[in-house]
């Protein structure tokens, strides 16, 4: 009887040990999520997991010939999973270009100390890419658009033009990278303009661009608002109640505006259509007068007092014609947004390829839908006064890589030919 009791006791203990994971025969899961090449600033992404009883530790090694170097070690103390992201500089470990092996070893906390060893052959590439700038815009205005055309000796993971802290991505069309960029309208001085290219191993190369900037002092204005405007235009756009009309206006003109513009910038940064679909110059509202200018810095006045903290840039042109005038697509493209957009009212955004977008706002009527292809001159809506608009007009904007730019250049076929079309055809991007 006692012998049976002892046997049963050990069965129970072993069962508990098994189900708790103390005794466990399964090994940890190890996944390598990184690239097959590691450069001078390479990234290693590792994922380890063990449900029962959890992970004891993980170690990562780099092996090349007889050289074995531990580059990472961590006690995980029973954690169920761990994501590891390492920045690795092979030179600092005395490694050289060529084949190497990345080895990951994960051990669980069971009595058996189950171990998984993952080995992945990788290529150590320490040579930065070589880029050849074929052409770039050397004379610009603040708020204007420029282009860089370049080729490289290898496939690049990313190419960007950095203007100060603003990043503009480049697009690969055939064997040429085309980089549309801007000197943002809100900059108060010239910032460094640097082309940055990275290969798939993480090697990078930077090259400064010397650009002559003609500095434009954009307009500054003060707009008066009254109670009628606040009640009929501002209040319907707010999702909060305010007793103070000034607080209401500030909320809509700052917070709601930011939400609306965040959506515009998101749509105009997707850059899904690489090749330009636009042809010739961009057109604007027919038989119209320009009322509001680009980058006009506006302050607002209520009952004779400036509303502090409600300032805003006007990021496009305002065109006015007859009431409910036809609004036509200013060039070929695809509609990526068609709907109500807060202070911008009923709006349409068109993707013209190459990260170039146009915005049409305050419409009384929308005649297109998202995903629809349009051609230059096609009716897309009617002018109106929806959103935060006073009087029937069209707010028209051009965005490059998600940043508003001065539309006037895009209306000028001579500017487009010399800065873009002629170069694009010459360097082979159009082939």
From TrEMBL:
Q: Which Pfam families match?
A: Peptidase_M23
Check the record and name the InterPro entries matching this protein.
Cell_wall_metabolism_enzyme, Dup_hybrid_motif, M23ase_b-sheet_dom
List the CDD domains hit by this protein, alphabetically.
M23_peptidase (cd12797)
| Key word Metal-binding present | no
Q: So which residues are the signal peptide here? A: none
Alphabetized GO MF terms: metalloendopeptidase activity
Domain M23ase beta-sheet core intervals: 313-407
Q: Does the keyword Signal apply?
A: yes
Alphabetized, the UniProt keywords read: Signal
- Put simply, this protein is called Peptidase, M23/M37 family
Source species: Sulfurihydrogenibium azorense (strain DSM 15241 / OCM 825 / Az-Fu1)
């Amino acid at each position: 009887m006692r012998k049976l009791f002892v046997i049963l006791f050990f069965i129970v203990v072993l069962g508990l040990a098994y189900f708790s994971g103390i005794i466990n025969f399964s090994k940890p899961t190890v996944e390598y999520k990184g690239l097959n090449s590691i450069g001078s600033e390479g990234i290693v992404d590792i994922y380890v997991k063990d449900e029962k009883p959890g992970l004891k530790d993980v170690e990562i090694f780099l092996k090349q010939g007889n050289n074995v170097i531990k580059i990472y070690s961590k006690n995980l103390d029973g954690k169920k999973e761990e994501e590891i992201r390492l920045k690795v500089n092979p030179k600092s470990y005395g490694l050289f270009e060529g084949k190497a092996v990345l080895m990951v070893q994960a051990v669980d906390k069971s009595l058996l100390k189950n171990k998984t060893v993952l080995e992945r052959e990788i290529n150590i590439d320490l040579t930065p890419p070589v880029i050849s700038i074929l052409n770039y815009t050397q004379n610009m205005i603040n708020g204007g658009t420029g282009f860089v055309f370049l080729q490289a000796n290898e496939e690049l993971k990313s190419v960007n033009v950095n203007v100060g802290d603003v990043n503009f991505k480049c697009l690969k069309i055939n064997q040429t990278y085309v980089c549309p960029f801007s000197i943002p309208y809100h900059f108060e001085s010239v910032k460094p303009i640097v082309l940055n290219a990275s290969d798939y191993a993480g090697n990078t190369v930077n090259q400064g661009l010397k650009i002559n900037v003609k500095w434009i002092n954009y307009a500054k204005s003060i707009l008066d608002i009254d109670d009628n405007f606040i009640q009929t235009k501002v209040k319907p756009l707010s999702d909060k109640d305010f007793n103070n009309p000034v607080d209401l206006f500030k909320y809509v003109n700052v917070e709601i505006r930011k939400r609306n513009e965040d959506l515009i910038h998101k749509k105009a940064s997707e850059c899904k259509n690489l090749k330009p679909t636009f042809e010739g110059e961009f057109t604007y509202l027919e038989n119209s007068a320009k009322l509001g200018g680009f980058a006009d810095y506006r302050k607002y006045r209520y009952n004779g007092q400036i509303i502090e903290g409600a300032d805003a840039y006007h990021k496009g042109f305002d065109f006015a014609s007859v009431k409910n005038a036809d609004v036509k697509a200013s060039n070929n493209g695809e509609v990526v947004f068609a709907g109500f957009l807060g202070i911008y009212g009923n709006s349409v955004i068109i993707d013209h390829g190459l990260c170039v977008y146009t915005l049409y706002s305050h419409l009384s009527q929308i005649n297109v839908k998202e995903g629809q292809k349009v051609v230059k001159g096609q009716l897309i809506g009617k002018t109106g006064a929806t959103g935060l608009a006073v009087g029937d007009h069209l707010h028209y904007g051009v965005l490059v890589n998600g940043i508003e730019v001065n539309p006037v250049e895009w209306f000028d076929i001579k500017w487009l030919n010399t800065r873009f079309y002629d170069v694009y055809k010459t360097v082979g991007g159009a082939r």
